[in-house]
Amino acid sequence: MPAVDVQEKNILKICVLGAAGGIGQSLSLLLKSNAGSLLPRDTSTHIRLSLYDVNKDAIVGTTADLSHIDTPITTTAHYPGDDTGGIGQCLSDANLVIIPAGVPRKPGMSRDDLIHVNASILKSLGADIAKYCDLSTVHVLVISNPINSLVPLLASTLVKHDEKGNSRIESRVYGITHLDLVRSSTFVQQLNGFKSNIPPVIPVIGGHSGDTIIPVFSRLQKSPEYANSLDNGMRLKMVHRVQYGGDEIVKAKNGNGSATLSMAYAGFKIASKFIDLLVGNVDTIDDIVMYVSLTDRNNEEIAPGSNILRSDYINNLQYFALPLTISKNGIEEVHYEIMEDLDSYERDTLLPICLQTLKGNIDVGMNLV
Ligand code: NAD
Ligand code: LMR
Question: Where is the Lactate/malate dehydrogenase N-terminal domain (predicted)?
Fold first, then answer.
């Protein structure tokens, strides 16, 4: 297998699978227009944006369109059965793979209603990633819903296909739940009339659907600008609004899909952190919240050095969104400490409900592998 280290080959290859869709197009636009500004000034590293979709005309058109933007980032289109090697060519030597492929919700549907269609898409893309990527280096970011079930499904699919058996790929598969953090921050600022120029940072842990979403609003107590933003009644309303924020967009789009622009914004923020890491601007990504596997294939802690409170707080669930430290090798630390900082409402009311629902969601994903 050729070198996939960015510094060694001087190329950072980012693949977007499902790049012709609502999220895929907007995210690819943000990457094409902004990713270059993250490169160190003195670098000779070049970014390649490798875009794949099953919709041939849409991906060819989208890529042609992006290619007219005057940033020095190469864009290539890939689709099944194309002359340039289809998904194999798209994925080979990839450093970062981002997956927004899949069907979005319509009004009246839950994210879980998407499971069968999207599970078969992710299983097939998982087999391709295993075949064409170097599983011991690639990082995979999952956007497709239902995240709670599809991240376990994809991580297990990759482990199953890992022929060498020692890739630790399960420590480099991440579900992007960042839209929930973006929403929490936005809604608090709206309440404050956008009076402060410093947005609040509110970690959101658990999963990414309804009552599995736990916005840790108790954190606001630590920031003087926002400490008194939420009285008890308002806090309940805000928790509900974050948990069901996705429904607001599905309803507003009235049959034309779910969040795309705000998701692309959230996805780009996460992708930027990985670009910083992979091009060597930073050694680790610190305090990023994503939905990940907390144990490896041997049931050992994914981050052995972490202060482990898992069994005390999250019933040995294998997947959960928590603050992480990530290096090029994958998850280095899981910051379970946040569980000790939860207030009684978060710990005794929100957490037990989350755990119950999330357990079922994880089992669904694992059973489909
Ligand atoms: P979309 O229908 O606009 O785009 C999906 C794209 O995936 C389409 O272009 C389609 O052709 C492509 N596709 C389908 N099967 C494929 C395959 N096998 N390989 C490659 N491409 C394939 O949908 P969207 O609005 O972009 O949403 C995509 C997914 O993201 C949905 O499942 C949605 O629920 C999810 N989503 C997640 C979050 C989150 O917070 N994680 C937020 C919003 C949406
Ligand atoms: C969201 O939170 O907006 C996404 O998960 C899309 C959806 O189905 O709500």
Answer: 13-163
* Cα of 222 from ligand 1 centre, angstroms: 37
Residue 124, Cβ neighbours under 10 Å: how many? 14
Rounded-to-integer distance, Cα 136 and Cα 330, Å: 10
Instruction: Spell out a b/e string for 40-68, using b for 16 or more CB atoms within 10 Å of the CB, else e.
Output: eeeeebbbbbbbbbebeebbbebbeebee
The amino acid present at 287, given as its one-letter code, is: D
Q: What is the end-to-end Cα distance of the chain in Å, rounded?
A: 27
* Residue matched to tokens 């009004």: 107
Interface predicted TM-score of the whole assembly (ipTM), two decimals: 0.99
Helix spans in the chain (H)? 6-9, 22-34, 56-67, 86-91, 115-132, 147-161, 178-191, 232-243, 245-253, 261-278, 310-313, 337-341, 344, 351-367
The string of pLDDT tens digits covering residues 7-26 is: 778 999 999 999 999 999 99
List the one residue out of 116, 51, 44 whose CA is nearest residue 79. Answer: 51
Q: Which atom of ligand 2 is nearest to the CA of 249?
A: 3
Among 314, 184, 177, 185, smallest CA distance to 240 is for 184
User: For the whole model, what pTM was predicted?
Assistant: 0.97
Whether 178 is a known active-site residue: answer: no
Q: Domain residue spans in the chain?
A: 6-177
Residues of each annotated binding site for NAD(+): 18-24, 53, 118, 143-145, 263
In Å, how far from its chain's centre is CA 13?
A: 18
